[in-house]
Amino acid sequence: MQLRVLGCSGGIGGVARTTSFLLGDRVLVDAGTGVGDLPLDALCGIDHVFLTHAHFDHIACLPMLLDTVIGARRQPVTVHALPETIATLQVHVFNWQLWPDFSVIPDADNGVLRWAPIAVGESCDLDGLRMTALPAQHTVPALGYLFETADGAMAFSGDSADCPAFWGALGRVERLRALIIETAFSNREAGLARVSQHYAPETLLPALARIDPSVDVWLTHLKPLDASCIVAEARNGVHRIAALNGGQTLDF
């Protein structure tokens, strides 16, 4: 399985795109602004979207995706998320004011959007890919995800501060090859990271001691103005740590 990074920035500007990953051809993880760079045929081929949480930088392109592909879909696009995330999007986005409710378009029995609630620990099997919801700690209800194939596994933290349950779940994963983990702020803004429930390098590095040093660590959600500083502060010589980049692909 290949993961393609459509967006991994904590902001916009130039080539920066917000969080979205494409697994194979059919599965999106989050739907940030990077989704908008996909060609039309690729957009039409997306069957599943797994959301980590409801913040705008992670769902910005979901409304436009549904509007774009409606004429090409014979089956709905299934959006997997926490019940709290679904409720937020129903009330504040797909509410006929900010955006139409695509769960009842073109009609109530054949909506192009199908909601699929998921809870921490639950898994979904999709053609050789297993998606498992992992715990996260953020300012709103949030998830991380574990991606598994017969060959290996990769984890994604979503937006999260230090979450012991997340690291405990990773400790039970066999053949974990890589971890994509958010590190939104540099150490000079560690106070802001704590308030907004994100990592800074000073909180990330002690947390990484809980996993095997052989696991590749990819930093995501870096604030654009501090990206190089965050990476420099996070490199500790123990784990293989690098910044994720838009357009990058990872195999697992």
TrEMBL record:
Q: Give every Metallo-beta-lactamase domain span.
A: 17-208
Q: What is this protein called?
A: 3',5'-cyclic-nucleotide phosphodiesterase
